[in-house]
Design a protein that fits this description.
Layout lengths: L1 E5 L2 E6 L6 H8 L5 E3 H9 L8 H17 L4 E4 L5 H13 L3 E7 L3 H9 L8 H15 L2 H4 L3 E5 L2 H6 L1 E5 L4 E2 L6 E4 L6 H10 L3 E3 L4 E3 L5 E4 L10 H13 L3 E3 L3 H10 L10 H8 L4 H12 L4 E4 L4 E4 L13 H9 L2 E5 L5 E3 L2 H4 L5 E4 L9 E2 L2 E3 L9 E7 L3 E6 L33 E4 L5 E4 L1 H14 L14 E2 L12 H10 L4 E6 L4 E8 L2 H8 L7 E4 L10 H18 L1 H4 L4 E9 L2 H36 L2 H29 L12 E10 L2 E2 L5 H14 L8 E5 L3 H16 L4 E6 L5 E2 L2 E2 L4 E4 L1 H8 L6 H7 L5 H22 L4 H14 L9
Parallel strand pairs: 1-7, 2-4, 2-5, 3-4, 5-6, 8-14, 9-12, 12-13, 15-18, 18-20, 25-36
Antiparallel strand pairs: 9-21, 10-11, 14-15, 16-17, 19-20, 21-22, 23-24, 26-32, 26-33, 27-28, 27-29, 29-30, 30-31, 33-36, 34-35
Helix pairs in contact: 2-3, 3-4, 11-13, 16-28, 19-23, 21-22, 22-25, 27-28
Amino acid sequence: MTIQIPKLSLVVLVGVSGSGKSTFARKHFLPTEVLSSDVCRGLVSDDENDQSATRDAFEVLHYVLAKRLARGLLTVVDATNVQKDARKPLVALAREHHVIPVAVVLSLPTKLCLARNASRPDRTFGARVVAQQQSQLRGSLRTLRREGFRHVTVLSSPEEVDAAVVERVPLWNDKRDQHGPFDIIGDVHGCFAELCALLEKLGYAVRRETASAEPPPGRRVVFLGDLVDRGPATPAVLRLVMNMVAAGHALCVPGNHDVKLMRKLRGKNVQLKHGLAESVAQLEPEPESFKTQVADFIDGLVSHYVLDDGNLVVAHAGMREALQGRGSGGVREFALYGESTGETDEYGLPIRYDWAQEYRGRAMVVYGHTPVPTAEWVNRTICVDTGCVFGGALTALRYPEKEIVEVEAERVYFEPQRPLARVPTAREYPDLLDIADVRGKRIVDTRVHHTVTLREGHTAAALELMSRFAVDPRWLITLPPTMSPSETAPEGPLLERPREAFAYFRRHGVEQVVCEEKHMGSRAVVVVCRSEAAAARRFGVADGRAGVVYTRTGRSFFNEPALERELIQRVQNAVSHAGLWSSLATDWLCLDAELLPWSAKAQALLREQYAAVGSAAGRSLDAASIALAQARARLTGEHAQHLEALQARVAQRRAAAAGFVAAYRQYCWPVSSLEGVKLAPFHLLASESGVHVDRDHVWHMGTLAALAEAEPLFLATEHRVVDLADAQSEARATEWWESLTRGGGEGMVVKPLGLLARGKRGLVQPAIKCRGPEYLRIIYGPEYLLPENLERLRRRGLGTKRALALRELALGIEALYRFVEREPLYRVHECVFGVLALESEPVDPRL
């Protein structure tokens, strides 16, 4: 006997003790799929036969069962289950999770069960218990279907049990093996002319006279229901759809209007409202056989389909993640009507929950039912009912291309009861952060560096920062990564030098690197749009801004909005002059840059930390020098020699303090307007045409240099390409670095020629900074070059910093990919938020 069970189901084994349920379960199911009451009893009492632990055991069993069913896993309950009260909570859990309950009954002779129990020393109960269970089992056989079990199989002999074969069959809505491509069409509502025009626009060969259509090679249509009512040609639409489905050229799910028509055709008492009267009148001249075919066709439609390995779900009114691929009356109800609040609006129509705004599922959900003026994406969902019958358009979504194709309605066929209301996208909400999307420990998948784990404590700190201080989150499409320095020089008067940076990349198989001048400014991300309209269209920001400038922590770079507006306008003009809008086929750009001077953003840091250190050091050491000079004048001999050494030491420290002040002062000048500001971009991170990690640094430098030619605001970044197999090439780059740092310049950044380089162990550092000795005074303090300090700093560890840089890089790039691919904003924020969370990790900030 073959026992067919749905792939997603709750299998309840029913049988008396000794009937072989556990053996049957081991034979046909995975160990992880079986929940045994005996095992649960042992878990809570250390004795599988301790009947006093039965209640606790079943609490454990029911808890684990609920978790498995919630995750969509087939589960088998191995217990006697001969009492209705024992089965009732199991059926209730199956219904709660929209899983089909299946009963497999092992109804074997009492003598056989008693003999089996007698051979097991752990079974000490007598024949009376088995007889009682057999009585309960016989009563159960009459009620199992009424209790809610959709499939019941009874095995009445050992031979039947041994011969049984369990076959797992997919639910009717499970078409994960069908990958498309698909053309998903919204509510037709009897608009035959528009349906034919749309199919032809999609490339289908439509024959109106035979109500048929041949698809382009490999493509299929998916109809989202509501084929009928309101429009002028319901019978013609039905013929065309039914023929396409029968020919295998289309799939179809039912709409609520279709189901109502079916009930009318089946003789049910249905009110002729909301366009049903028009369908009934149009079907009146049709033969009864056609009406029967229509009713049977609609009755046979499946509530929704899960397609393409679970990446696509289609349903008339949508489908929550928890309901996808499941089968129950509740699932069908949601697919037909969505979920209402129980209230009605001023037009007398039901108010429905906006399930799409809360959707966080992996699958793309395409639906109709609620007409909208235009089809727009909301959290991986899209409504393609654009009100054709109301004079709007008939719309199709091409999958997987995600391309919208539509034809305008020839006229208004039916006046809507209420105006069409567009579905607000997530980008149009002023408060976009949902704490459920970011709190707690999180694991984020990235396509360039596997997964990144975020710790709970760090996400809490990031939540505080992002919710209180960040710019409007709709602009936050990425955050740049931190950057590691080179390994320390093992000897000599320098802490960092190019040799170690070159050696790192050579060691990881990189053949060419780019050395870029490191500007002493503040890291800035610039997002700029061609116009305010483009910003509203792509970012959902309609506050009059065409762009934004923010820091590595997502804060607004400028305290004065007027400065930001002026900078964005000048960036717009430069991009237009350089022709990047057209050459990149984009209305927006995202740049990674340095904004100079350092004091433009770090004034408080300069006043409170650097200037305070320089001033205090200078005054105290000056006073010490005077005191030592006075003391030296009064002393001779050995004491005088000692003071001379001390004076030399103080003079050395005074010179170091003066060097510290000189080091930071050359990077600072007063800024009250953009006249003193320079923007030095070094990465064109992304545009509508893609995430530009596939272009090497030479392309980025050349493309961005065009902006400097067009606008004095921009500062082109000097760079050199170095062949790591050529010692002279390295020497020339080293000489250039020495010339940059000799006058107090910060130094340079060494990067692989390609933005993403991989070695034997995976992703290589995207950039290594090599800083000059005078600049490092700012970082490590005035006296870092004293021999005892320098030796201590040579022992600094870089492992944590470099691991952090790779994870932040992966998250920042993943955020851009998700934005460019128009994923939901919460998915973009997941990565941006992750960069902020990683910044809470304890890493020496001087690195």
